[in-house]
Amino acid sequence: MRDSRFPVPGHEDEKIIIFTRRHIISMLGPILMVLAMVLVPILIVAMIYSANQDAFSGIVLNFLVIGGSIYYLVVVTFAFIEWISYYYDIFIVTEDEIIDISQEGIFDRRITEVTLLRVQDVSAHVRGFWATLFSYGDVVAESAGENTKTYIIDSIPNPIAVAEKILALHNEHIARQASAADVATGEGELRAIKPCPSTQSQSEFQQAVQKDLQSAQGSLPQASASAPVCPPCPPANQPAVPPPSQPAIQGEIKNNDLNQGGEVKF
Amino acid sequence: MAILLVLYFVFLIIYIAFNVYGIFRIWSMRINGDQTIRIIILYLFSIGIIIFISLIAIGTLNWSSNFSFLGIGGTR
């Protein structure tokens, strides 16, 4: 049995940006309830005993001991389950996803995941005096697409900051996706142009392409500026420099044909 | 009154089995750097205190009487 791990299996390697639980003030109700459940029976018994000292004699005392023991065992378990429901009710934002773990007792656990790309709208609600005083509230995230869903994360601290951070991460994610798409397009363009054997060997050209792609993942504009350029290849039986009248290869490159080196349409 | 004791111990067995399974489930949910182990120790300590006090009280009481006051039968 593993001692500890990331809350959601399969996400162990993801970088956590936000990790939060419900605000502790949301536990005020259960805490007061447990205190009442502990103290009220003691007060009732004390009042009855002070009024009539023979009230708890004989068999009544036997019932009181057994009943009290069972009652307080149930109360302790209730408090423990409330704590588990609070402590494992977690809201996580990673670089790629929003993960909402909803824990209800020991045996009810629901994990909702939505990618940041699908997030369409994020809003924060701080309602009421206590929520404003202690700076907690709800974050509502809506997903895009045909099956639009609304995810409500209840009573988390600093909901406005969390909502802003989610939107910023969403925009960063979109920028990364666009950058990756540009890199893929660039890869297709580079593969579409075959290296010229007379001026540069094919292996050297492939190494230059790989180096360019690696640098392009970090910064696309820099990679584009330093992208290796190989001149169009002449036919084998012709000189390396084509005559001026021969047209250069031009056309559209499809991204989904990158593995075949790109398709060129005239 | 002995039936009351039997019922109590049956309850204790079921209660302990429930808690063992519940703690096993919670253990499998643990996350890095959590406080679960402390809370579980505190929880088990509380249960132990309640059962210990209950057993001491049960040991001091007379369990040979019956339910005659409820009209079930027998005499006290």
- Proportion of β residues of chain B? under 5%
Structural class of chain A: alpha+beta
Q: Name the largest protein-protein interface in this structure.
A: A-B, 29 and 38 residues
Summarize the main sheet of chain B. none
SS field, number of helical segments of chain A = 6
**Average pLDDT number of chain A:** 78
Overall number of strands of chain A? 9
Quaternary organisation of the protein chains: heterodimer
Low-confidence segments of chain B, ≥5 residues, pLDDT <50? none
Please provide a brief summary of the model:
The complex is a heterodimer of chains A (266) and B (76). With 266 residues, chain A is of the alpha+beta class. Chain A has helices at 28-51, 59-87, 129-134, 159-192, 202-218, 220-225; strands at 16-21, 90-94, 97-104, 108-115, 119-125, 136-143, 150-157, 252-253, 264-265.
Please give the structural blueprint.
The complex is a heterodimer of chains A (266) and B (76).
Chain A: E1 16-21, H1 28-51, H2 59-87, E2 90-94, E3 97-104, E4 108-115, E5 119-125, H3 129-134, E6 136-143, E7 150-157, H4 159-192, H5 202-218, H6 220-225, E8 252-253, E9 264-265
Antiparallel strand pairs in A: 1-2, 2-3, 3-4, 5-6, 6-7, 8-9
Helix pairs in contact in A: 1-2, 4-5
Chain B: H1 2-28, H2 36-60
